[in-house]
Write a structure and sequence with these properties.
heterodimer, A: 283 residues, mainly alpha, 2 strands, 77% helix, globular
Amino acid sequence: MVGRIYMSFCVLLLIVIIVSMVYFVASKGLANFISGRVSLTDFLFGTKWAPEAATPSFGALPFISGSFLVTLLAALIASPLSICAALFMTEIVPGWGKKLLQPVIELLSGIPSVVYGFVGLSVIVPFLRDTFPGQGIGVAAGALVLSVMILPTITSVAADALSSLPQNLKESSFALGATRWQTISRVILPTTMPAIMTGVVLGMARAFGEALAVQMVIGNAPFVPRSLFESASTLTSVITLSMGNTTMGSTLNNALWSMALVLMLMTFVFVLLVRMLERRNKI
Amino acid sequence: MKPKTADKIATTFIVFFALLIVAILIGLLGYILVRGLNHISWDFLTSAPQKIRAGGGVGPQLFNSLYLLVLTLLITVPLGLGAGIFMAEYARPGKLTNFIRLIVEVLSSFPSIVVGLFGLLLIVNYFDLGFSLISGAIALTFFNLPLMVRITEQAFRTVPKAQKEAGFALGLSKWKIVTSVLFPVALPTIITGTILSAGRVFGEAAALMFTAGMSSPRLNFSDWNPLHSNSPLNPFRPAETLAVHIWKINSEGLAPDAIQIAAGASAVLVITVLLFNLLARFFGRYIYRKLTASKRVN
């Protein structure tokens, strides 16, 4: 009986946490729009971020576009690599391939994000500075750092999907005389695509919410990026940098909360996408 | 192109990219360790950081990280166990269970900075706990709890059904089966998962910047009374952790040897996470043998 009550309490606590989280972030994030100090369209589509100007403007498009840009780029870089790694583990050399890559994936996912940021700052940024125009810091550096960070997420989900594929599907393809690549490209990948996409979406969710590693290498200029090697900002990086220097309740502070609300809403979108993909996967 | 040639080319590509990932990891670890290890010394690990001069260490930060980890696990482990066991053994399939599962999923995919901001709003300001270890530990609880729930639930689900049925056949109550039949079998998996999640908590920074704070008071390591403001054990003092320290000196470090300190601190962080990984494997196997008097195959 006591155990039952205690367990219900634990579950109730989870519900309370999430409800209060949504409530508090939403109430803070919507404050500017409700009081009319900033209009929703200005916030979402305004390109000018000048909170300290004589007529302050709070256009968050530079940060929203920066977030989406680095996330998409990171997914574009990481997905092919991860799918190759997963195929290597399950199709090419199932035995020692898994023994080799499993610990690699675990270690990569265990490295803290600030360490990724530090390595990005001291390896990737100088490399980009020497090979491409610009300062090295910028969208490309952010996307590269993020792509390494999300590799383990996509790889492990993709490897799970590939290894749970029914064996007879592959065998019948081989029996028809198909080569391994034909089997992979025409049978294995099409059947497991929804599951692999789940991994990609999970990776994107992680990239979208990652704060410190990106902040360290992206340069943090409040402009809509026009080139990959230009300094830019993301929602998370501007929150990281500005939240500590603002007073609670000011328009600027509330605008930062609005960005946190955008982050939160995007999390819901990602979870929804994952759920949809999983449902497709079952059929 | 002939199918055979295409097959060869594709295989080469796949092997190349898979090995590239291995190379990335080796490069990463090698870089961090080579750059950092020669900066690590007993003095570096124990002395306090310097603001402007060179030669500072990471003593208080390292202690804060470990202490915060202990506090967080003290809160999350019992709560996560409770909710996880409920989800695995008691929750009936239905709308409510689906809803709770959705909550766990959403909570575990929230960006850690949002968790940190929520902590800032609710714990630091509303409950007036200030920038403190306890605020940080509670924020990390929001962050770690969904993980613990999932670990526990999965551990319980992997226990063979026959074990449970044998318990029922003996006429045991459900609670008794959970505590004395299922729990010991699930424990190694739970411990392994907990230690792995501890590694994640140890390296977490974004959620802590706004809850545990970005500074440490002058600590007096001979004063272990948790009520004194300079005591390392006082849970109500602000505490900058190792990960936050790395971020801070990279973003606004003034010391001339900031880069070396960042390299050394990164190496300490990575080595600790590696140790957690090894410990998780070792402990899981050891306890499994202790509790079940059998050898696990893997």
